[in-house]
Amino acid sequence: MSLSREDVEKIAHLARLAIREEDIPKYAQDLSNILDLVEQLKAVDSDGVEPMAHPLESSQRLRSDEVTETDERSRFQSVAPKTEAGLYLVPKVIE
Amino acid sequence: MEWEAVIGLEIHSQLKTKSKIFSGASTAYGAEPNTQACVVDLGLPGVLPVLNGEVVRMATKFGVAIGATVAQRSIFARKNYFYPDLPKGYQISQYALPIVTHGHVEIELEEGATKTIGVTRAHLEEDAGKSLHEDFHGMTGIDLNRAGTPLLEIVSEPDMRSAKEAVAYMKKIHSLVQYLEICDGNMQEGSFRCDANVSVRPIGQSELGTRTELKNINSFRFVERAINYEIERQIDVLEGGGQIVQETRLYDADNNETRPLRSKEEAMDYRYFPDPDLLPVELDAAFIEDVRQQLPELPEAKKARFVEQYGLSVYDAGVLTASRDMADYYEAVVVASSGEAKLAANWVMGDLTGALNKEGLDITASPMTAEQLGLMIERIGDNTISGKIAKKVFEAMWAGEGDADLIIESKGLKQVTDTGAIEHVIDDVLANNASQVEQYRAGKEKLFGFFVGQVMKITQGKANPAQVNDILKKKLQS
Amino acid sequence: MHTKTIAQLSAALRAGEFSSEELTRFFLERISRLDDKTNGYVTVTTERALEAASAADAKIAAGEGGPITGVPIAHKDIFCTEGVPTRCGSKMLDNFIAPYDATCVTKLSEAGTVMLGKTNMDEFAMGSSNETSFYGPVRNPWDLNAVPGGSSGGSAAVVAARLAPGATGTDTGGSIRQPAALTGITGLKPTYGRVSRYGMIAFASSLDQGGAMASTAEDAALLLQAMAGFDPKDSTSVDESVPDYRATLNDSIEGLKIGLPKEYFGEGLSSDVANVIDEAIAEYRQLGAEVIEISLPNSGLAVPTYYVIAPAECSSNLSRYDGVRFGYRCEDPVDIEDMYKRSREEGFGPEVKRRIMIGTYALSAGYYDAYYLKAQQVRRLIKNDFMDAFAKVDVIAGPVSPTPAFKLGEKTADPVTMYFSDIYTIAVNLAGLPAISIPAGFVGDAPVGLQLISPFFDEARLLNVAHRFQQITDWHARVPKGFE
Fold first, then answer.
1. Where exactly are the structural domains of chain B?
2. Of B130, C355, B442, C287, which is closest to residue A31 (Cα–Cα)?
3. C109 in catalytic set
4. Which of A7, A16, A17, A73 should one mutate to test binding to chain B, selecting the residue with the greatest count of B CBs within 10 A?
5. Best interface-test mutation with C: which of A2, A3, A17 has the largest number of C CBs within 10 A?
6. Residues 6+ apart with CB under 8 A from B301
């Protein structure tokens, strides 16, 4: 399994990582090695085995519909990169 | 070539819970930005979701009401994409195993025909926040109060063939979610939103054409216009030898057109996978049966009952049960009017609806309570006022001048039912219009209305019309 | 004081031999003098520690509080601590001060423990050597040129160097057990769901589990007692009663059936480590245990399975680090895409980025079935192996790490080589089982750990089996040179 430069660029875009041009060959190599490792799963006969998403074979617990939280905006926004008028500010989003 | 449109709708219905789907923050509308976004809604490091049970009950209600399969096991998945108002970089939604599948609703077409529209699925998910594009020094502001508000996304089959059918379906679902008390249906506040998938194909062709997805169509009027515009546009493209591009388009209400969404040029790859922070939602048959038993009366049943119980026409019953608020109002009017069901129907559908429409008000915002209107109607029924005078009373009540009895009293609108008094007026009218009396008796029966008018003029409309008719007839015949 | 176990400190505090404040000052002084050698702490919370200590003293004086009231501990910097930097080994969270406490932190505070500080770790817990930390590598107190293991390398190092009597850790693929083994301490990874994950910064949600690191099994029992239990804020936390872990520590293990999986003793295991494990097993025979060879046939698939599931979950869990609401944001982004891409490129280190990319790839259209779904199926096969084994034996024993601690930089060039450091620990996380690493001997000056694995929610049995071993051995009591 060998990933191309384009594969790496596509994955990096999906993951929103600005991988540097000069790092691409190294990523392609490392990721290909990891995929080689993973490749051995393909040989396993797992027909009819139910996928296991979770160690616990139990079901979701339901919360009662109650408001338990209060306004803590100023505290939460004290760790934000940029805010104004109670809003988080980001570079202009164009739809 | 003759073309046929194929339309499917995705309706996002905000569930009216007190708290969010995965956190204990309030869902109340209109709060100051980010004051109702707790650590879970903000997606801070380390936080975890816990599912609101009410959300599950509401989705189950909807599923049962549309004759759907309510899954005994459903799974929450993550839909991964980056957007600044999506705090975690993924939306928790249901993908492979949604809670509701394979339902259907009936819509009414013109001339009383009906059509069944399939509901492919309805799944639970969390809403995103809002991006405010007003100018903050050229930046976008993010408000996450709405993030985590529960949504039921209702996905129809591509069963609709015109914009009108699409609107009828949307209205049907709109009415249903309010009947079920799972959504407030408020479209201005975005509690009930709609995207449409539209394609066209030559009539007779079985495979579907390439579709476009229309976003941002959040009123019944816009849905109809946007779809009609899009159908025309697609036909133009195809007839011009072009091809339809599968894309998301935004409806621009100001210019009544759709245009492609610029930021979606790349094909999305949402990388859905089961959310490892949440376990499968398992519902037992007893729970689903319990919800079924507690379902409120649904529109079809209510309509049938209105016909039966109040002796209304099928049409009137349909209008009055179109929304649960309307139906509830009507029934309150009937009670307050001591059972004047038909009169109540006429007033609610006529003058009241007219007055509300004129001011752009919903029935829940009516300045006149059902009790007030009912009491006025009772006065028509007991002959205190005539239907005609009632219109004056209605106007005064609408203007906030008080209850019917007060207005009737203070304006002296009480109907004259004293036979002697009416006879007296009639005698005067006949005496003063001797030539018309002669013409009438010579066969010009049209003049009857003239005499009634004269009597009403003198009595300022207060004479009981039935009595006036009776006495006039007798006197003119003698 | 530093060579005392938590159990001994607890008794001394209650007997009035010294106060919690004195004890806390003693450890703070040791930290300021010795921590530079290991780089185990990233934050020392002196003031807060002294406040908590005097509050604990008041409680002890009033005859209140529990068995660990007044005992100083360290928290892995993956646990959110209100008002204290919580950086998770990453530049991404360099400026992040958590606005809330992790449930685990709350529970340990309520039990009266005193937080000395936050410990260094591999970035977002991704690593087996503590070399991926933005805050520099942690050094193994037994050999300052060797790694302490990871990702809870800071917690392991500070406990081994006696710079804290105990610490919290987290274990996604071996991150408590492997560093515990490499630093000669006791590390317990509980059953998935036993300890709340709320406030514990997620790496791979279906594998992550918080646990205890201390010198002895008895100390681990005391810490777990406070940490364990149902948390309504964590949907995956289990509502099952928590037994008294200390009550059964001394139970006899006569007739205990210990399974040795033959796959854990094959190629790849260093012969030195194998010898130490053999001797440890011999001790168990002395204690009356019956040793049975078993097979976990799918063991060889654990590493590849893990390197699909863990990166897939991590790729999604780490999407929230987008520079919008907290954490690192790049300088002068030209637009939103630039902000995302550069903030994440600059904020994350290479191993984190590799795993995000592998996970993104494994989940992407066209590959999901071949990678993610397949890995989930194999995950069940791996779990079934354990279930079959536990039909025959009470606990499973084996090595923790194929080698003793390796040198700094020795395995950083090739990620895949590094991944095989966790070859014996990963399957436990995939299955969700509890396991413990206990000091079993040395290869030269390098400690070796013995791993014990038990059925779900049988931590009491693990602690009992570990404690009995520690009653007849003293490996756990050794202190590295320079830290005596």
1. 3-287, 297-410, 419-477
2. C355
3. no
4. A73
5. A17
6. none
Q: Which domain holds residue A12?
A: 5-43
Q: How far is CA C475 from CA C150, C186, C438, C447, in A?
A: 21, 10, 9, 8
- When CB atoms are compared, the residue of B42, B80, B276 closest to C325 is B42
In this predicted model, what pLDDT tens digit does every residue of B396-451 receive, in sequence order?
999 989 898 999 888 878 877 788 888 888 888 888 888 888 888 888 888 888 88
Sign of CA dihedral B84, B87, B92, B93: negative
Chain C residues whose beta carbon lies within 8 Å of the beta carbon of residue B90: 316, 319
Contact B273 C322 (CB under 8 A): no
Size of interface B-C (CB pairs under 8 A): 100
| Pairing state between β C257-261 and C395-399 | parallel
* CATH fold for domain C1-484: Amidase signature (AS) enzymes (3.90.1300)
Instruction: State the total domains in chain A.
Output: 1
Strand A62-63 relative to strand B51-52, pairing: parallel
pLDDT of residue B111: 75
Kindly state the average pLDDT of the residues C33-60.
98
Mean pLDDT across the stretch C186-207? 98
CATH number of domain containing A30: 1.10.20
A74 by Cβ neighbours in 10 Å (0-12 / 13-18 / 19+) ranks as exposed
Give yes or no for residue C299 having a pLDDT over 60: yes
Give the helix ranges, DSSP H, for B360-433.
370-381, 387-398, 404-410, 419-432
Predicted local distance difference test score (pLDDT) of residue B253:
85
Q: Contact C146/C140 with Cβ under 8 angstroms?
A: yes
From chain A, pick out residues whose CB is under 8 angstroms from the CB of B276.
Answer: 53-54
Q: Which CATH architecture has domain B419-477?
A: Orthogonal Bundle (1.10)
**A52 occurs within a structural domain:** no
